[in-house]
Design a protein that fits this description.
single chain; alpha/beta; Rossmann fold; eight-stranded mixed sheet; two-stranded antiparallel sheet; binds the ligand CC(=O)N[C@H]1[C@@H](O[C@@H]2[C@H](O)[C@H](O)[C@@H](O)[C@H](O)[C@H]2O)O[C@H](CO)[C@@H](O)[C@@H]1O; binds zinc ion; N-acetylglucosaminylinositol deacetylase activity
């Protein structure tokens, strides 16, 4: 078995599409390099909007079939990235998308009405136990999830962060729930990140090209939403520009959520390479390995023995 095959990455995300948005290029790159990639998605995205008019009947307040449909979108997106191991936390339908609404400050907050089995109301230990079983089975050296704010505040993202971080801690405890498998300590944990400087460069490019509608309201020289982090917070950049096509195809597979002329595609291809092909991370557990010119790691497995 090649050394790469002994490296295993676990990603924990809230809804179908988050994985492709945040780390789609990294996932495709690592699969192509022969590394193991496992995705755990905590809900099926039942409460999402529907950008495809002929599918509006699937909406939660109509046929409530969007979760099943997005399961298919996720399958298609994973085929584009080459990922063969993707699971729903506790099994499909265990936890439901909690929905969200926008706060005046521009970040997401919990919806006014939330279903009984919404992920936001999940019992943290029970949800973590489902993930511990996966951690102890897959034995990943690296895990990726959201920061404590869930990126932009979505309650399911915040809950996915909490479950992932708690599960990683408990999975490493030999005396905790031996029935869930032999203890496994994940060597490195990263939170996905987006660069403030990168998006400012991209917004300036769009403005210079006369595009004033994409990323409407975001001034390249003004205040940006909190999920764009200052560069000093970032510790790793995976340059997966060579896999940008696979990432864009995976994004397109999530057709009810992402429009082909939306912000992810608006940036010119070379800008896309800069903004979307190079995926950024914050190391929050473990020892950083070799770094590149920018002082950031270029490989999430840097310094991690295979095995
Ligand atoms: C990327 C992501 O986390 N998407 C979530 C999010 O979707 C947003 C939501 O529908 C909002 O109402 C829209 O204005 C916004 O454009 C969407 O991105 O929340 C959904 C409901 O919880 C979730 O299904 C979707 O995956
Ligand atoms: Zn999401």
């Amino acid at each position: 078995m090649s050394e790469n095959a002994a490296h295993r990455l676990l990603l924990v995300h809230a809804h179908p599409d988050d994985e492709s948005i945040g780390q789609g290029a990294t996932m495709a790159k690592y699969v192509a390099e022969g590394r193991g990639v496992t995705l755990v998605t905590c809900t099926a995205g039942e409460m999402g909007e529907i950008l495809v008019p002929e599918l509006e009947h699937l909406a939660a307040d109509k046929e409530d079939g969007l979760g099943e449909h997005r399961r298919g979108e996720l399958d298609a997106a994973m085929r584009e990235l080459g990922v063969t191991d993707h699971r729903f936390l506790g099994g499909f339908g265990t936890y439901r998308d909690s929905g969200m609404k926008w706060h005046d400050d521009g970040h997401a907050i919990a919806a006014d009405e939330i279903h009984d089995n919404a992920f936001w109301h999940a019992d943290l230990t029970q949800a973590a136990d489902h993930l511990i079983a996966v951690i102890r089975e897959v034995r990943p050296q690296v895990m990726v999830t959201y920061d404590e704010f869930g990126g932009y505040g979505h309650p399911d993202h915040i809950q996915a962060h909490r479950v992932a971080m708690y599960a990683a801690q408990l999975a490493a405890a030999p005396s905790y729930r031996r029935d869930l498998g032999e203890a496994w300590d994940i060597a490195k944990i990263y939170w996905g990140a987006m660069s403030e400087s990168r998006i400012r460069e991209g917004l300036r490019r769009l403005r210079d090209e006369g595009d004033t509608t994409t990323f409407e309201g975001m001034d390249p020289d003004g205040q940006l939403p909190p999920f764009f982090r200052p560069d000093e917070d970032i510790t790793a950049e995976v340059d997966a520009g060579a896999y940008l096509e696979q990432k864009m195809a995976a994004l397109k597979a999530h057709a009810t959520q992402i429009t082909a002329d939306g912000p992810f595609f608006a940036l010119a291809n070379n800008e896309g390479q800069l903004v979307w092909g190079r995926e950024l991370y914050r190391l929050v557990k473990g020892v950083p390995g070799e770094v590149g010119d920018h002082g950031w790691e270029t490989d999430l497995f840097a310094g991690v023995p295979a095995g």
